[in-house]
Amino acid sequence: MSNYFKIFIVAFKLGFISFGGPTAHLGYFYDEYVKKKQWLNEQEYSELVVLCQFLPGPASSQVGIGIGTIRGGMIGGFISFIGFTLPSAVMLMVFVLVFTNSQTTFSWIQGLKLVAVAIVAQAIIGMGKKLTNTKTTITLALFVLLLTLLIHSVYIQVIALIFTGLYGAFFLKSKDDSNVGKRDKLFLIPKSIGVISLLLFFSLLITLPILSSITTNVWVQMMDSFFRSGALVFGGGHVVLPLLESEFVPQNLISSEQFITGYAAAQGVPGPLFTFATYIGTSIEGIVGGVLATFAIFLPAFLLLYGVLPFWDSIKSNVYVNAFLKGISAGVVGILIAAFYNPIWKSTINTELDFALASVLFILLMYYKCPSWGVVILGLIFGIILY
């Protein structure tokens, strides 16, 4: 089996079972890529998550692209993205074309949300053992947890991570950091590619709105709206929804009812929530519109990630940067715990039955070492039968 095919198969499987939003996706990725496949270790995974937290766009998709790039270069990153995104994109296209007028309720989704609880809990325990193994790092994680839960702002995560990173840069340096530059490079991408990617990103960000303002071509308008939405979003897929609503509903390209229906459908499929753009594009211009929307909203994620990755190994090899990353890595654990409570726990665990079933799934996953796909199937069965 070729390396590229392996990358695609693993990502495609994750695209089918990764319910629960971007934080849950990071849990699925950790379980598959770090624990099972060992394509990268906990520290490398944490550093990649940190980088993608600071970049605009869909963080979990960017992490998947980064892991594919580690395994198979830029082509591997693209293949990983295709595998992870394809299931949800196709499901939403089919929903538009076949079920768009359906009043079906997806009560079985509750079973899959229970799986997300188990998956994220496992990831928190696994990453916590490696990244918060001292009183200092535990305190940093707690600090980020408290800020994230108590201050409701899309920017608070970034602010909290910067603070923990600065603390780490001053107080978490160690003798081992002198050897950090000797680690093998993870991303073998030419720096020229990075420069070209960043130039293309900013060029499109400037020129597409200008082109859209001087033409009535719906394809140009769609490209502009989806590209800007993907380029200017911090905080994950849920934040992009109001941007997309303001871009398409007031212009009567899609009705408010269609938008709400699509939002519900996007919540019910696995994979990245950014594929909600696929639903909107398909609703406006059919399958070709769906393909264009998907390409446009994810393009900034590629350009930004490939713009930064060629310089990432050199940047993090600095002793102070490495200590900075230690502080941020502890903060990431705090973010995971906060997201585990809200929205994952709050929107899922409502009754004693919910807690009991989530506990069963967690024990099977954590201690009986059941594969994540098996736990997903069991959760789906719970959802169909009991909800």
UniProtKB/TrEMBL annotation:
The chain crosses the membrane at residues 7-30, 78-99, 111-128, 140-172, 193-214, 287-312, 319-341, 361-386. Keywords: Cell membrane, Membrane, Transmembrane, Transmembrane helix. PANTHER family: CHROMATE ION TRANSPORTER (EUROFUNG) (PTHR33567:SF3). Belongs to the chromate ion transporter (CHR) (TC 2.A.51) family. It is found in: Cell membrane. This is Chromate efflux transporter. It is a multi-pass membrane protein. The lineage of its organism: Bacteria, Bacillati, Bacillota, Bacilli, Bacillales.
